[in-house]
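Predict both folds.
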Amino acid sequence: MSMNTSLKSTALEPPKGAPWYRKLFTVYGMVVLTVVLFILFAIARPDSFATLLNFQLLASSKSILLILALAVTLPMVAGKIDLSIGYGVGLWQVMALLWQLQGIDYRLVILMCLVGGAIVGLVNALLIELAQVDAFIATLATAQVIYAITYWATGGRQVTDNTGMRASAFDALSTWSLGPIPGTFVIALVIGLLLWVVLEFLPAGRYLYAVGANPKAAELTGVRRRRYIVGAMVASGMLTAVAGILLSSRQAGVAQANIGSEFLLPALAAAFLGSTTIRPGRVNALGTILGVSIATIGISGLQQLLPGQFFLEPLFNGLTLVAAITIASLASRRRLGRAVEPSLPIQETPGDDPSPGGRESAASLPGTVDAVAAVSTTGSTPPEK
């Protein structure tokens, strides 16, 4: 069976021949909304919102959230979810300081955190793939274990560097800048762009999307499903460690065990929201970056218009998550409906058993259109089993 299909998701995109404005608002509606919100808040609060200082403060404070949202994005591409990132970033921001207070060189501490993050991701992957535990349950359980380890390491107390034992170069990780742009924001953007390149242009990204579309169909086309799920979870754990290291560096010698969990909901909301734009109906790195941007602009603008209303941020994140999940669920149902339509004739080849008990064709599986498309793009071939 020969297929010349593309990797583009059409679950939410308008049909061919649709007016240009429908395509604009369907594919780039979130971009338009972001620009509109920025203009409205800039007009309402010109002295505080549309300023370089406000940009620097928001870019610096939300860079950790952006990295965590990208960490959530990778497992979601593979059809999984990682709920351990919130407590994971809390653990690594504590250990990044605590290990330095024990006399370990900060460069070795960074390496230890990255390795630790990879181990957490590997444990999650083993629970999901070998033990066949649902990803939601597995990563939620792992998160609680991580939380317990954090409290055990700190004794439930705040860790403070009162003697200046941490390296000044460690603090410099979050204090440098590229012109007016904070360094942590530059790091987050670089990670986001690298992830976008991998997912959109490299075979590994296509295979990862294929696994997320339909694992069984992906295996029938030669993709080693388990390898890519493990890789996604390990990469997610390492990105969580990067976020924890930068968070610890920014806190200037203070770390608390209960910091981190508040990042989980905004990160999930940004990733789900990102799946409704750029590549509507499909989780993507640029969409995640845009999801963080619109949440940052919306919350900052509302807080400046309604100062002292502390409920605005959780309310905005909650409503955004509900809206994004609803749209993503709609896209998933539409994609599945299109996949099971008999639009592609199944061609029998010599040796195929057409009987009910014979070998099941990959083209007859729900979701195969997306999965096979991911490994059938020009210039890429599926890996050998």
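Second protein follows, with its predicted structure tokens after the sequence.
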Amino acid sequence: MSNSITRRLPLLLLLSLLIALVAYLSWPSVKANKQQKPRVIAVKTAVIAQSEFKDVVEALGTARANEQVLITSKYSDLVDEISFDDGQQVKKGEVLVRLNRQEEVAKVRELEANLAESVAQLNRFQDLLKKKATSKSELDQQDAQTKAISAQLMSARTKLSDLTIKAPFDGVLGFREISVGAYIDSGDVITSLDDLSVIKVDFTVPERFLPTVAVGQKITATNVAYQEQVFTGEIATIDSRIDPQTRTLKIRGKIPNPGLKLRPGMLLNITIERHTDMVLQVPESAVIPIEDKHFVFVVSDNKALRKAIRIGRRQPGKVEVLSGLEEQDAVVIEGALKLREGTQVSVLEDKE
């Protein structure tokens, strides 16, 4: 009997090894099946709602002063007096420069004296004519002489006035280009004058926007110098013609500039607000484009449901939804690329 057990011992050992091997191989899958749980993806969502959608047209324009001139002299003469500083704000009629006018002052006084004497002589001829002591021709001759002296006096006074150069309108002066005692010629630039109370800006838009722009329409402008500030104005003029080469329409806007922050020559980013609608919008990050279709994931009962949507107009960060969603739907705005239909999700944060 002991011999029989001895003969069977190798077989028993082999059978024990096979049982142990099978148990070892099947143990990981059993453990994995026991430990396997549904996969949960962390996402962020936003509740969508009706909001304003501003239909705008964007363009670039260059700022110009409302009024701008180069101050020059009409006559050549010496500079006697300068009454302004660089960059000074002046009012209309303020004296800027006086040229040498001694000769003109003397001439005006001489003509005033001549005119007074001629008028007195004319009065004597009129009295003599009444007494028939002189002829009508002599009276007419004296009258013509009086009118000639009067015209000469007016011309002299005008020249005298022109030798005093005044500001033609309210504004800000530029740099002074002359000095006291200098001799300037007719047409020499003395300084510049800009009316900065209002800034004009000329820009162009494609001809297809012609039916949707009008005088008085609101415009906004920004500039790199004032990145946090928006300047508001309106359309002042629309050109009567379309440029036949570029097929664009020229528009001039006016922007109030009370702080004088805007200056001529600035590049302005112009936005025309055509109209404002209340539409359903979703954040741009929520939209998943696939070929020619668009999808979003909506969270319902902690599950991600993929919905096809039809989109419309766009604006920075937002997309108009024409169909496929309803108000108060919670759409996934972060983590959507990890999702599949029916995926379990954990909402980290809701954003309005």
